[in-house]
Every structure is written in C-alpha cells, then in structure tokens.
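ok trying again, last paste got cut off:
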Amino acid sequence: MVADLVMLARGGSTPTFVEDINDIILNHLNSIEHCQRLAKFPNVVIQTNLQQDLHHVCCSHQHFHKILLNLIGNALESVQEDGVIQISTRNCRFIHPVLSSAAAPTGEEYVKISLADNGPGIPEKDLDHIFDPFYTTKKMDKSGTGLGLTIVWNTVQEYKGWIEVKDNGPGAVFEIYLPAAPSNAVVSHDAHADRQVQGNGETILLIDDLPDQNETMEKMLIHMGYVPFSAGSGEEGIAFVQSRPVDLVLLDMIMGDGLNGRQTYERILEIRPGQKTIFLSGYSKNEEIVKAKALGVSHFLEKPITRRKLATAIKQVLSHK
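nice, full thing came through this time. structure:
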C-alpha cells in the first residue's frame, strides 16, 4: 500500500522505454507471481488474442506489469470459478474524435489493450467512481487497498493514453489506449531479453519440499524451453540423480525433515561430480550457504525470484564449461 502511494505521489517521473506490449503480457502470464495467484482459481481460463504486428509503445515494463497485475487480479476475483478472462491487443487509428476522451487526436496510431471477463459485471453506481482512490467494493482486510485501479488510471495517463471500463453483459471489459511509438523507434534491450535466454530442451531437476513451489516452477521452466522434473525432498532428489543424469539441479536450501540443501548437494556430487546446481533460498546470510559455496556451487538466488532473473541464471550456469 505504501509503495502504491509513493507511485501516485511521484507523478510522471518514471523513465519509459520503447516496449513490445505483447512481450510484456506473455512475460506476465508466465511469471511466478501470476502462476501462484492463478493456482487459487484452477478452473478459470485465460485466453489471449494478440495482434502479431502490434505497434510498439513507450512505457515502463515494471509499471505495465503492475497494470496487468491489478486488472487480471480483479477479473479473477470477479469470475471466481469456471470463468473466462480474455486479453487482446490490436492497432487502431481514430478517424473521428472519440467522445469519451478529449485526449485522443484524430489521425494518430494507437495500441488498444482489452481485458474482458464473464463475471457478474460492475454495477452502474460504481462505474463513475471505479478509478477513485480508496474506492473499493472489496473487504479492506480481505483483499485490495482501494488503490489498484487508481494506479492503473494514473499510469495510463502518464503514458498520454486513456482507459475506459464498460459493462460487458455479462462481465466487464477494460480498454486501454496507448499512443504508438514512432515507426523508427528501437525496442529496448529488455524486450528481447527473454528470447535470448530461452532453453533448448535441457533437463532440470527441482528439489523443494513444497509441492506448490515445484508445480509453479515446472510451468515456468516449460515456458522457458526446458524439460523439468521435481522431487519433494533431498532424498528423492538423490535417488533421481542416481537413476539418470540431468543438465541442472535447482535446489532449495532449507527443507523440512531430512537432508537440507547443502547435505543433498554433497551427496549429489558423490554420484555426479561437477553437477551444475543453482541454490534457492529466502535467506542470503546462512552458514549452510557458505559451506555450499566452498563445495563449488557458483550460483545462489535469493527468493522471491523473478522469471527473468531465474532464466538468466540458468542460461549462465548451463553455458559455463
């Protein structure tokens, strides 16, 4: 909530880059944060219809991720079970003035991002206030701060665009219009970063005692181009490595009963000397981590881990001879 307030107070000071909105949407849908939240709504289907030759726009990757986080989060809570959320993008050009927005000059190119759901919709009495700060229909101690849609509105305004919300009967649809970047604008390096760190079918073993973590990471690794396997304990991981080799091990440092990460790594090295391994942990200062580094492990990632940071670390370790 404090971070949201700071973002509102900061105004237009966020640096922007030329970005591919389709890439940002796909990266968000493959992120740990999104996958963990979607796991709470197993029957909800998210469909995408993204125009292939979409114009680029000037925006902040991080802040557009925040827009998607808020809009998709609201849609998930709205549809609950057996719902459908549709995300689409397309290029558009306004020949006539847009009555609902004086900020849309005619004859200019725009990118339209639509997010529609088939939930119960938004009551008419709420439509006029939906972007007001702290206006919320949720229970404040259960979900939301009343700032999510205000952040969305302010961010879109900062990019010289506008947003409209309509009752979709059933459901609601949010439509964002952003000015297209000049045709000769160069896309930022980050927009292509994920493609540069895609895997090529290498095998990765996840060792973590939390099934949800393994499931989420498996989905991410599949989207990254890897073939994942998982084990629920150090002992299971050791047995797996004994039965077949893997290109990389992603190993949680702190597990429940049984062997911890460092002990598991020691046993794996006895079976597969030089096994490439990345340690994951929520604690950066740990005596076991020091011991693991002494054994030769070169990469350690502190939780929470972003998709891009994980993909980059995996690529670095796999490419190292």
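cool. The chain has twelve helices and twelve strands. The first strand starts at residue 17 and ends at 19.
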